[in-house]
User: Fold this.
Amino acid sequence: MRATFKESHLAKVKSNNSRLIAANIIKSVIAEGRSLDSALERGLPSTLSTQDRAFVQAMSYGVLRWYEKLNFLLEKLLRKPFRKKDSDLQALGLLGLYQIGYTRVKPHAAVSETVSATKKSGKSWAAATINAVLRNYLRNREELDQEAEKIPHIQTAHPLWLYDAIKDDWPEQQTEILSNNNLQAGMTLRVNSQKTTAQAYLESLEKQNIEASLHPFAREAICLQKAVEIDQLPDFQQGAVSVQDAAAQLAAQLLAPQEGERVLDACAAPGGKSCHLLEISPTISELVAVDCDAKRIEKIKENLNRLQLKATLITADAALTGDWWDKKPFNKILLDAPCSATGVIRRHPDIKWLRTKEDIDNLVIIQQALLEALWPLLAPGGRLLYATCSILKQENELQITRFLANHKDAAEHAIIADWGITRSHGRQIITGESGMDGFYYACLKKHCAT
Assistant:
């Protein structure tokens, strides 16, 4: 059926109004369960200006970062909650509150522009409600904010289950973790050591007036003072550098493959660690990268091609080794296990909304299955590096404790480092330490046959 003029006009208005676009992206996450990355990919019109795209992204990230607190305030300000079918109005209310509370947008502009966006949303009847909510917040902001401050998980904008988990696991570091989770993560580069050195590339950045510094622990890492578009990075397309957090870069350093060794990267997509392994260890016999997602395997292929590296790519469930393993053992295995991603909330604030307590129990089962399935593939004397971007002990040190108790042919190879916190098994990087994401590593060695 052909759209009416009114429908066509409304669609055009929605595609040009940055606040409406942001609200629809937020709605996709909170009402439809989409990841923020997916919602942005689907919801950002290609015709949007660079400035408006940046605004939409900032608003979307900001609202989801502070969702728990913003929604608490919104519920206090509404006489009755919006109906499920009006989740776009909920998103607009959250957006207005975020602009007032956390941005440099002048309060009167935040109110008027959000009300204007509501009128253009096709639900102009709700404009008076949004106007009343935002103006009421301006009048009673101090009192409402004080009410939110009395509830720790609301004030820190974390769901209660996650707040409690962080408090239980890290009583001494909880304040730091909760605070860092609400900060925007920096941009870190990984220099391709086959092309140049970190120091030389740092000098190239300085010539482009891009302020940066070397990372204290990750040898190939450079931290930018301010994020830039990748096309501004010298020789990016020629493979001189990639974007990767410093904590993730430690994986290749820890595994340290030697000449002639065969290496497996299980759950490899999007391929950052695979590429790093090949960059620092060009004389290994083969790197096999396995991932269950065919589209993400294509991303690995793109990264390999740009960096001029070669690996064997396999689309399969790494745990179902009978479907893909050729019976040739691996000297080194990297298991970057599926996890809660609670260490990268700075980069993906939607995790706080999308992840549930029940998810953690399911992920622990998946991690255990992968460890059990991959261990037989490791050659005697070989090493398996277990990694997660989680800060929850259930997925990390407790997982390794269980594995070691059940495998007499396994022993921990202690990680001696100046970064992270020594745990009963492995090392834990707390979110924000030296600018890094939250990460866990444990190195396991298989006993040689006697």
User: Anything to note?
Assistant: Residues 5-13 have pLDDT under 50 and may be disordered. The chain is about 45% helix and 15% strand. The domain at 246-446 is CATH 3.40.50.150 (Rossmann fold).
